[in-house]
Amino acid sequence: MADTESPAPRSRVTRGVAVASAAAVAGVAVVRQRKTRALRDANDLLDGPGPIGATGRTRRSLITARAAGRAGSGWAMHRARRTFADAERREELDLEHQIRTATEVAETLGNLKGAMMKLGQMASFLHQGMPEPVRDALAQLQQDAPPMAPELAAGVVEAELGKPPHELFDQWDPVPIASASIGQVHRAVTHDGRAVAVKVQYPGVDKAIRGDLDNAGLLFGAMKAMFPGLDPKPLVAELRERISEELDYRIEADNQKLFADYYRGHPFIHVPEVVDELSTGRVLTTELATGARFAEVKTWPKDQRDLAAETIYRFVFGSLYRIGAFNGDPHPGNYLFGPDGRVTFLDYGLVKRFTDDDMHLFERMLRAMVMDRDLVAYRRIIEEIGLLRPNPAFTDEQVGDYFGHFYAFVMEDEEVEITEEYASETVGMFFDTSGVHGEIMKAANVPAPFVIIQRINLGIYALLGELGAVGNWRRIADELWPWVDAPASTELGRLEARWRATHHPR
Fold it and tell me: Which of 121, 278, 303, 400 has the smallest CB count inside 10 Å?
């Protein structure tokens, strides 16, 4: 069995902490410039007394400015402490400072919600190979955020659906069962006896997120200094469009119905049904699903963890190649697990639909790198599409060595374990320009079709790494790639093949 594990020296661990902390701190710093504007217009408050409304635009800006101020003063103190320290003590001090920064930023972003919390959640996936205190700090952003007041949630439901929850539903639980960056979820029972989950958008979160998105260009402009090959315009435009779509639950409902329609009756992939008559732009009602959470699954026996991992893999890449859509939010809270490999997939706010041209491009890249092992052809393709800026200083082998890492677990017909170390190294291949591939990374770009793909790839690697997933991913991929369409190679694959024969015959 091949193993993607590699040693994680302390220097790389320290760089990893710095990457996660810097990514989160950058999110805070981006918002800091709103302080002056907000103070000039103290009346421009977000409506309502909830977690968004209570802070208002003014307090929201003050919170982030205060956090940035703490980070700055903390850095000054840290520099003073390390001035006369030896090399080993400096590394210890650096680690302590990064742990404190990660903790403070996690707390700040968790309270702010909106796009900045989403940025923090993305940073939280960079924790592989880090010390336990940093894991704990960033893991806060993968859990439920502080909820809004019950009266506020009820007010949103009444404003959207015309009646208060206790009239619309036979039963309504005012205490949310989950809360996240844009809304929170309440358990309810309809008058005809259906158990449902009702997602209610935070009042004013649309204004908060649009304000964050207005500043996104500043963040990516700063990133361009680190990655000269990066063109931030299409990156910002793609993220702005995708995140803006999340604010309209009608779009999310349409996305969810696309997946639910395709996977209806599937033996181990479950997508909850949408209840249209109880859904609007700010309220989304769906079938209530149950199952174990990701943290619990990590404690399960290895065979059950491998089944869960295979289901996630089949859902992600099966959806891409069979319906041309990617659910781009691989957050641990968006999965509910059964011990037999069954997984319920939640949250379809961030979905990317790909064109036929996009799908053909992905096929060309996979054929060149994985099937033909033609590095010249692969390099030509990625330079054509702007994924890599042409540079004669790089050899084809160097380009192949860098980009080939992201295909490592499907390169050979053999079992491969996706470890946390591999996931951490994969993240480092994107962000750590001090490594052996630093110059290639500086010439790399992220064209629009790849923004969400890279987002979910990093998230999936992280999740499968935490599960220690083992599988012959190449054989499973051969089943999912339509230009191969290989026979089933696992028991889950055989179950899926029988389902496809009846539900989606060729």
Answer: 303
Q: Is 432 part of the annotated catalytic residue set?
A: no
In a domain, 184, yes or no: no
Q: Exposed (0-12), middle (13-18) or buried (19+): which is 134, by Cβ within 10 Å?
A: buried
Same domain, 238 and 294: no
How far apart are the C-alpha atoms of 467 and 310, rounded to whole Å? 11
DSSP label of 140: G
Q: Which two tokens stand for residue 350?
A: 């961030």
Residue given tokens 């989160």 in the structure block:
24
Check residue 89 and give its pLDDT.
72
| Rounded CA separation 492/340 (Å) | 10
Nearest to 355 by CA among 258, 448, 293, 480: 448
The Cα–Cα gap between 247 and 206 comes to 6
Catalytic one of 206, 212, 306, 329: 329
Answer yes or no: are the C-beta atoms of 245 and 251 closer than 8 Å: yes
| Residues 233 and 368 reside in one and the same domain | no
| Shared domain check, 487 and 356 | yes
Which pLDDT tens digit goes with each residue over 442-480?
A: 888 888 888 888 877 778 888 999 999 999 999 999 999
DSSP 241-279: HHHHHHT-HHHHHHHHHHHHHHHTT-SSEE-PPB-GGG-
Angle between helices 114-124 and 87-112 (to 10 degrees): 140
Q: What does pTM read for this prediction?
A: 0.76
